[in-house]
Amino acid sequence: MALPASAPDATRTEELGRELDRLRAEIVTGRGAADAHYIHTVIAVQRGCEVAGRCALAVSLLPPAWVAGTTLLALAKTLDNMELGHNILHGQWDWLGDPAIHSTTWEWDFATPAAAWKRTHNHQHHTYTNVVGRDRDLGYTVLRMAPEQPWHPVHLLQPVFAALLAPVFEWGIALYDLEVDAVPSGRKSLRSFLGEATTLLRKAVRQSAKDYVLFPLLAGPSALPCLLGNLTASAARNIWAHTVIFCGHFPADVHTFTYTEEEIEGESRGEWYLRQIQGSANIEGGPLLHVLSGNLSHQIEHHLFPDLPSNRYAELAPQVREICARHGLPYVSGPLWRQYASMWGRVLRHALP
């Protein structure tokens, strides 16, 4: 595991774990009406934007209606994907006991089925964050993002792959969640793969029929601009999600790890926290950026506390930063433009041997 020279020793690592556990406990005991009001407000705004956007696109032969409808629908899809779907499926709102926004019942406006995403993201990625060979999110099996990953000539094209992935990100994630690469190795049976592929196909057909057949047909004379508006809104959401996720995981100062199986299994709570801090990066900005990113602009806090309400990450961030400073740990944070440039630098650097 590559650690900074100032990394804490075992005793200080366990103290780090205790401090972060105390922060987590404070938030858990303090959850209440204000948090519930927040998530219900976001749901209301998201639904309002979607209804208004689809109504505007129904008369989108008028250019101002097309611009307004496409913008509102893109906003609705972004909120549904980032601040609602991602966080609800992490179980952040299960404590409310509301079956309408529970991790076991929620399905999102996104190509990949919720169950498949929870398996690859909640379990694999958040358990094995940035461990080469275990965290499949480290390059999503097609990009080389660490020097420990084997290089192949095809990686010379990875800047092109990364750019092409952005506008179709939801479909890339859907195929990734199928874990096709696990079938030849025997980690997944062909029967399981075919069952999951069938579930994905059903979801993909429903998603495509809703956005690209049903609503355009309902728009009548505005069918074509409505279709283009839906395509544009989905692409805008995909590009934004791709940007936020890549900037939270792949800037140059984010560490990767080469743990053995035994080291992973024997990892203490403090060591797990340490890896999450070093394997994530924050994006600095205002409240609107935080909400539209699903508060994944606080990626470090999210990786430390993935099941805490996302609206609490801004409150936790200064405390986590202060703890990192005391323990001599890096706290990778910067404005969007800087993290975006750094991320592309990493993509380009590891495209080469």
TrEMBL record:
<dbReference type="Pfam" id="PF00487">
    <property type="entry name" value="FA_desaturase"/>
</dbReference>
<feature type="domain" description="Fatty acid desaturase">
    <location>
        <begin position="65"/>
        <end position="333"/>
    </location>
</feature>
<dbReference type="GO" id="GO:0006629">
    <property type="term" value="P:lipid metabolic process"/>
</dbReference>
<dbReference type="InterPro" id="IPR005804">
    <property type="entry name" value="FA_desaturase_dom"/>
</dbReference>
<dbReference type="GO" id="GO:0016020">
    <property type="term" value="C:membrane"/>
</dbReference>
<dbReference type="InterPro" id="IPR012171">
    <property type="entry name" value="Fatty_acid_desaturase"/>
</dbReference>
<protein>
    <submittedName>
        <fullName>Acyl-CoA desaturase</fullName>
        <ecNumber>1.14.19.-</ecNumber>
    </submittedName>
</protein>
<dbReference type="GO" id="GO:0016717">
    <property type="term" value="F:oxidoreductase activity, acting on paired donors, with oxidation of a pair of donors resulting in the reduction of molecular oxygen to two molecules of water"/>
</dbReference>
<keyword id="KW-0560">Oxidoreductase</keyword>
